Amino acid sequence: MSGPVVLALRLLLAVSLYAFLGWAFVSLWRDLKQQGALLAIRKVPPISLIIARGEPAPQTRHFVLPEVTIGRDPACECPVDDEAISARHARLSFHHNQWWLEDLNSTNGTLLNQEELAMPTVVMSDDEFKCGGTCFVISLAGDIFMPPVKRI
Q1: What is the number of other CB atoms lying within 10 angstroms of the CB of residue 10?
Q2: d(Cα 136, Cα 58) in Å, to the nearest integer?
Q3: 131 Cβ partners below 8 Å, 6+ apart?
Q4: Cα 115 off chain centre by
Q5: Cβ of 91: how many Cβ atoms within 10 Å?
Q6: What is the mean pLDDT of residues 10-27?
Q7: E strands of the chain, at which residues?
Q8: What pLDDT, on a 0 to 100 scale, did the predictor assign at position 141?
Q9: Exposed, middle or buried, 130 (CB in 10 Å: 0-12/13-18/19+)?
Q10: Do 131 and 52 meet the contact criterion of CB atoms below 8 Å apart?
Q11: What sign has the CA pseudo-torsion 111, 92, 143, 98?
């Protein structure tokens, strides 16, 4: 083979290599953007807590946060006026597509469905937990937060 033919083959190989690398990077970039868009639209499902402390009418609190801290501290997302509750008593957190309840090393502990809560546990609708003298009932239905459906 002559020198110009070998040079042309080398140039053709270099151009095809760079074209392949360019295509691979564009493909990865598109996939990364698509995954980012999917993560951006993921929403935390709403959670409601019905709080009963012996009063005639229980309170209902609604949350759309990924983490809800319960305690006496006014900085908690769900502050409760109960002397038997620690400043930061328990936490509800949404991860792995489930709501989890955990005790934050409180003095009096947390009961979930009348059992001591020793580790973070998955909770469902109508689960009851008790912090101090206050009972909470969990509702994951989220009917209040659902927009009305338009019928055509």
Answers
A1: 10
A2: 9
A3: 70, 71, 80, 82, 84, 85, 89, 90, 106, 108, 110
A4: 25
A5: 20
A6: 95
A7: 47-52, 59-63, 67-71, 78-79, 90-95, 98-103, 110-112, 115-116, 121-122, 128-131, 134-139
A8: 65
A9: buried
A10: no
A11: negative
Q: How many CA atoms lie within 13 A of 135 on its CB side?
A: 12
Alpha helix segments (H runs only) across the chain = 3-41
Say if residue 145's pLDDT is above 60. Answer: no
**Surface-to-core class of residue 149, CB atoms within 10 Å of its CB (0-12 exposed, 13-18 middle, 19+ buried):** exposed
User: Residue 125, SS3?
Assistant: coil
Model pLDDT, residue 102:
96
CA separation, residue 25 to residues 19, 29, 72 (Å): 10, 6, 52
